[in-house]
Write a structure and sequence with these properties.
Strand order of the largest sheet: 3-2-4-5-1-6-7-8-9
CATH class of the largest domain: Alpha Beta
Structural class: alpha/beta
Distance between the termini: 91 Å
Number of domains: 3
Shape: globular
CATH superfamily of the largest domain: P-loop containing nucleotide triphosphate hydrolases
Mean pLDDT: 78
Helix content: 25-40%
Strand content: 15-25%
Order of helices and strands: HEHEHHEHEHHEHEEEEHEHHEEEEH
């Protein structure tokens, strides 16, 4: 038997209910009257009396580990609590003792911390849901998540997956912002400075989801509890335009040690060009003069200073046209520009501080220019040392001539510096160092053989 064709359905069944109308938002209240531009209104710490973060928005701080993101957040919390606001601090990285010690050390009021600071340590998803219910009643002005990656990992989420990141924003952070709080997230950047961009590490969905102010924390001068220093807060994204244009430094955060605590001051940024790490800039120029070119990473490793200061010096040299930077694959190659007017670093090394013997340090990043090749030929010709001469005792393929001094002429020292003491017989010292290294290796091998023989005998 053949199946009979079913007649076409010409109408919907009566039991299907129609869908409700879409939940359109009435825009009339927003259209009435003049709409003022939105500006940051939480944590009024900036020099002109303006605030640092947008209320009712998702804001962010990102920077390298140990540069001071937490210090900036705690300073903002202290200012908000001093003004009478309520703060919720979610901390998956530190512990209560460390938080209190740092908050008090940065000038926090003990009474304000006890009454208006609500601290969550390593919260579970249930703890955050409970905090959201608490926030509906108490309306905190500032909500801080100090450790985005840790919070994601605690819920089994991946910061590189856009779906996981957006889910966390939607379920854990957005409810606080909808209650009017300024939500601020602290995040890390990638390890490599090359091609880092203006966002934190992980999925690019992070930067797209922040609808408030995104600030990059830059180390201006290293600081400790006993030495002053400062940070820069640079705009990476301002969706509303109330804080400033992208790449503008909104403030410098200065940390000054005082008796029993550290004073924190948000100051207006220095004018462009007012701070130049000239000593490091001269070292970089001398390094590129000696070796012709080097990668950005190679320069940072060769110059004995804080990496952030070397990066700042490189940026200044590029801005001033003293060096050029070209991209070769994944690397950034630096070269000294033609006709550059950077003052040269002293052409001879100074005694290493603290050795007590006046011996010229062979750990200096740039070797002094040598006249001649050590054999008396090419007299008067200045030849930069080969790259391996930064650490001559490791050049096993081309050892120095045994027992023969390298003849060179010491260039006139800078009158403003003490006259250095030159080594008379570098080759002999290098040969002796090489012989000691060989003897140490031989002694180590002998002891290892004796130890192995003893172990075999014991097993037998």
């Amino acid at each position: 038997m053949t199946a009979q064709a079913q007649p076409p359905v010409t109408s919907w069944p009566d039991e299907v209910e129609p869908l409700p109308p879409p939940p359109f938002v009435d825009l009339a209240p927003f259209l009435a009257g003049f709409i003022e531009p939105e500006k940051p209104d939480v944590a009024r710490v900036l020099p002109d009396g303006t605030a640092l973060f947008y209320g009712g928005r998702l804001n962010e701080l990102h920077g390298e580990p140990g540069e001071g993101k937490t210090n900036v957040l705690i300073a903002a919390c202290n200012a908000e609590m001093t003004a009478g606001g309520c703060v919720l601090y979610i901390d998956p990285e530190d512990n209560p003792q460390g938080f209190v010690r740092r908050a008090k050390g940065l000038g926090g009021d003990v009474e304000a911390l006890a009454e208006r600071c609500h601290y969550l340590h390593n919260p579970t998803p249930e703890d955050i849901a409970s905090a959201q219910a608490w926030a509906r009643e108490h309306k905190p002005r500032l909500v801080v998540l100090d450790g985005f990656a840790e919070a994601l990992a605690a819920e089994g989420l991946n910061e590189d997956a856009a779906s996981d990141v957006l889910k966390f924003f939607r379920e854990r952070l957005r409810p606080f912002a909808e209650l009017g709080a300024a939500v601020v997230v602290a995040d890390h950047v990638t390890k490599s400075t090359e091609g880092r961009g203006r966002w934190a590490r992980g999925s690019g969905a992070k930067l797209g989801r922040y609808d408030g102010l995104v600030l990059a924390v830059e180390l201006g001068q290293p600081y400790t509890p006993t030495e002053p220093g400062f940070l820069r807060l640079r705009i990476a994204k301002d969706r509303n335009g109330g804080a400033g244009a992208r790449n503008v430094v909104v403030a410098e955060v200065h940390f000054t040690p005082a008796k029993g605590h550290t004073e924190v001051a948000f100051r207006a940024p220095q004018e462009a060009g007012s701070f130049r790490p000239t000593a490091i800039m001269e070292k970089i120029a001398a390094h590129l003069t000696a070796y012709g070119e080097d990668t950005k990473r190679g320069v940072c490793e060769a110059i004995p200073s804080k990496r952030a200061m070397v990066v700042l010096a490189i940026s200044k040299l590029i801005e001033e046209g003293q060096i050029t930077c070209t991209k070769a694959g994944q690397k950034h190659v630096l070269r000294l520009a033609e006709g550059a007017s950077v003052s040269r670093f002293p052409s001879v090394s100074q005694p290493f501080p603290g050795n007590g013997q006046g011996v010229v340090s062979d750990r200096f990043p740039v070797s002094p220019p040598i006249r001649g090749n050590g054999n008396g030929n090419d007299a008067g010709k200045e030849t930069p040392p080969p790259r391996a001469d930064r650490f001559p005792h490791t050049d096993r393929e081309n050892p120095p001539p045994q027992g023969k001094a390298i003849e060179f002429e010491i260039l006139p020292p800078d009158e403003s510096r003490p006259a250095p003491i030159a080594r008379a017989n570098l080759a002999a010292e290098f040969a002796a160092s090489e012989a000691r290294a060989v003897a140490n290796f031989a002694e180590r091998d002998r002891r290892g053989a004796e130890r192995n023989l003893f172990d075999h005998s014991a097993q037998a």
